[in-house]
Amino acid sequence: MARKTWMYSVLEAVQHEMRQRPDMVWIFELTPPVASNPGKPVINLEREFGRKRVVNTGIDEMWMAAATLGAGLAGSTACTYIPYQGACMPFQIIQNHAGKLRHMTGGQAEMPVVFIMEMTGQTPGFAGQHSDYEIDTYYAHIPGVRTVIPSTPTDAKGMMVSAIRSRDPVVFLYPAGLRDLMEDVPDEQYETPLDKAAVRTTGSDITIVGSGASMPEVMKAAEVLREEGMGVEAIDLRSLKPIDTETLVNSVQKTKRLLTVDQSYYTLCPGAEVIARVAENVDGARYKRVAFPDAPPPASPEMFLWMRPNADHVAAAARKVVA
User: Fold this and answer.
1) Could you read off the pLDDT tens digit of each residue along the chain, which spans 323 residues?
2) Is residue 191 within 8 Å of 283, Cβ to Cβ?
3) Residue 293 lies in a domain
4) Is 45 helix (H, G, I), strand (E, B) or coil?
5) What is the rounded CA–CA span in Å between residue 166 and residue 283?
6) Among 124, 152, 185, which residue terminates a domain?
7) What is the CATH number of the domain that holds 61?
8) Whether the model pTM is above 0.90
9) Whole domain around residue 111: which residue ranges?
């Protein structure tokens, strides 16, 4: 057990699995699979496994996704890391092929592949064309593909292990806003379910649901509200497809109030799906969502941070729902 970053935890999981699976490959562009951590050895997958298994491609994200899928169909286990510049480009390959081939082959095709998609996490400073790559809703919409978004290094490692060992394609969303987050993470391999939400705090006054980079703000708001005497049940979705509807419904049946928090755009954000599923199963509850406005992000960091949902926005919305 040691304090580790999000990416170090992920590469530690990948390193262990590649040592156990001689046919496993890692495909990347621009961002070498290297991670360092205080008090831990540097992980360098290319140096350890060589360029035949750790492949540095040209800048072509659709090709990377197609090659990864092909490797999986041929019997290998394959991961690809798509940086924020191209996180939307592989959509056609994943939607039209990875999501359909098992159905089209009558269940014969297995696809042990992981598409790691970096999202900027609504982070200012990435330029307008990159700063709003909140692609969670895009990939969660695809049938036949699991879509997960861990918000802690511990979950990132456990869910990466589960994703690699899955026989289904997995879109593994990486919010870049969590890049510097550190916590104690076990050294050994372990699996975290790809279909279960995590209840981070328990309470009976309101359920607040978030995912990915929104969770640190949710937890800050939950602490403020707890000090005010409000019982907050904070839930981290972790999985966007499938969504753990049972955990959500059980919570809102108790609290009768639901607030969702997303750094995605307001229209069709993950929280909208959460509210719809709960509303179909719980009568008499109150609902509200907080999300990034339906507007391109401005160049000004101050304006950008004002628009992005933060702990103050979450706490204010929760007070309105409970009032």
Assistant:
1) 899 999 999 999 999 999 999 999 999 998 899 999 988 999 999 999 999 999 999 888 999 999 999 999 999 999 999 987 667 888 889 999 999 998 899 988 889 999 999 886 556 666 566 666 578 988 999 999 999 999 999 999 999 999 999 999 999 999 888 888 999 999 999 999 999 999 999 999 999 999 999 999 999 999 999 999 999 999 999 999 999 999 999 999 999 999 999 988 999 999 999 999 999 999 999 999 999 999 887 777 788 888 889 999 999 999 999 99
2) no
3) yes
4) helix
5) 36
6) 185
7) 3.40.50.970
8) yes
9) 2-185
